[in-house]
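Hi! If you just cloned this repository, the fastest way to understand the data is to look at a raw example. We've pasted two of them here, unedited. The first protein comes first, obviously.
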Amino acid sequence: MTNMNDKTVMTNQMKQRPRQTPDMNRVVGNAHILFICLDALRYDVAVAQQENGGTPVLNRYGAWRKCQAPGSFTYPSHQAMFAGFLPVDEGTASMKERETLFFSEDTGMGRKAPRGAWTFRETTWIQGLEREGYDTYCIGGVSFFDKRTATGSVLPSYFMHSDWHPSFGCRVADAPEHQVDCAVRKLEDVAPGQLLMMYINFTALHYPTHYYVQGARRDSVQSQGAALRAVDIQLGRLFHAFKLLGPVFVICCSDHGTCFGEDGMWYHGIGHPLVYTVPYKHFLL
């Protein structure tokens, strides 16, 4: 069993690792890309689980960065992220100072891409990857990905292939397992040499989360932490399945946070700091 001193040392080591901006022009075309969204995960919840050892799989890949989300709920945040505007580090004083992995030439940001950014001209960088020979997959979660309405069909339409099932939904405690089952099946069918981009919208962190804590009747920091642990358990086999295909670049973040009664506010879609403060990391498997 890991003791508290070991956990403290581990956390300090992760915080001390120097951060390097990847050259996405070397990543694209040479590695698979996995984009994981831990929908509605708060930064403080993510860090608490990191520090108490609740997320051993994610902890292997460095500490969470404290970032600002581009939107206060799923739909606007994903429209921004898919257009290249991923969460930006807290304290960034200018748009030009933000770390940019994917750069669109047509968003009023100029024509010259920041160093290391991969440039695309399509609506999203996901569609841009098709030009480079990637098959793109979406494994949906919340209703904005369920394809049961016109609005719920917009975000999945950016991908060549998209899957959604009721067992992936917010009210299903085993949703992380079902979503990873789906992902692994897709990976098993990938042809040798075929590049793959996959996006997964994990719903477990989204309300309601109270059923992850026995006897709880209300969502809380504790129940969201338990939900994150449930996702982390599944990420181990997801990463293993991806690594069998070759190098994998992973983007892992939340699209927005949520409130659990702080200042009298609940959930998201509101302008509270807890909603806009999110965890983010990227790494190479």
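Ok, and the second one:
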Amino acid sequence: MEVKISNSSLNGAVTAPPSKSAAHRALICSYLSGGGTVKPIINSRDMAATVGIIESLKNNESILDCIESGSTMRFMIPVAASLGRTVEFVGQGSLLKRTVGEFAELLPIHGVNVETNGCLPFKISGQLRNGSFEVSGDVSSQYVTGLLLALANLQGDSAVIMKTPLRSKPYVDMTVKVMADYGVNVRETDFGYLIKGGQEFKRLDYIVEGDWSQAAFFLVAGAIGGNVTVKGLDFNSAQGDKAIVDVIKKFGGNVEAGEDSVTCIAGELTGADVDASDIPDLVPIISVLASYAKGKTVISGAERLRFKESDRIESVVTNLKAMGVDVTQTPDGMIINGGKGLKGAKLKGYNDHRIVMSFSVAGLFAQGETVIDEAESINKSYPSFFEDYNMLGGKANVL
């Protein structure tokens, strides 16, 4: 489906949806504990993937569908191996092109038989054994999270050793924090992480915090040309994307922090340098912020974006150029000369939820209408995005 964005501004208050990242982790910990609830959970395709696989494991099913969730795929493969299951992981769409090569190399060393070409389908059998797991830190932090969840479920001690510096470390910090909430200890070391064997996940009813990643779309909209408050946010969160507050401030944006909310009000913005090594998911919406900021912005450290739902560097640059932005692609990001005004255009959504939501914000202040295809991709993470967008005064017509 397409969405047509007409000129408007967003004003008012909205509550952040529950964090997808925290919910993935809590659902797995809850499953390993044998009980308890995890609420609230957003009704998205990514959440459906993790919930569905957990139900399939409970029912001793052999085919586990990750749908299009990379997190589900990389978290649940080692978890299923820690249970000694014989299962085949399958998926849909762009997920079929996303690699699980680290597990194809690692798991056989530790007692698991693997059948794969490096991507899905990925079949495993045999019992995962504890030990030392050497992982590249510059591919995806999701491998580390999956291992931590799985190794804590084994009887013997284990270590995750980083062969290269860990990128997107806040995502692993979140994993360690959620595991601690469930009574499982992971110790960070100079070389990686130590996990004691024989730990038990405790049963509890878990409350999922608000999602800083999703809040970022509305906060940037407020900073560019509105007055938006996002409620339900935790400043003590381990979510790396709470850095959006500091990023907007770096561009000179007007940001007011409340006890559990953030308000962004329109003001003059100027370009800035942004190292996105730990916040790659924010790059699409930061690129929109930069396009409306006067002067030069350099976004770097985002090379892993080339292997997301789309090549997000290519996707962002192509759409910005279509809107008349002076932007140059680099191997690990982009250079944007902003503040010259954007024009409405017909854009590609690339079946990528973050691209669609980011350019829905870009279209708010562009000259003329903006039409984005494959807008249904928002169902992957935030199905009610356009409802909240229009509630705040946006003019999004879903066709």
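That's it. A detail worth noticing about the second one: The first helix runs from residue 20 to 33.
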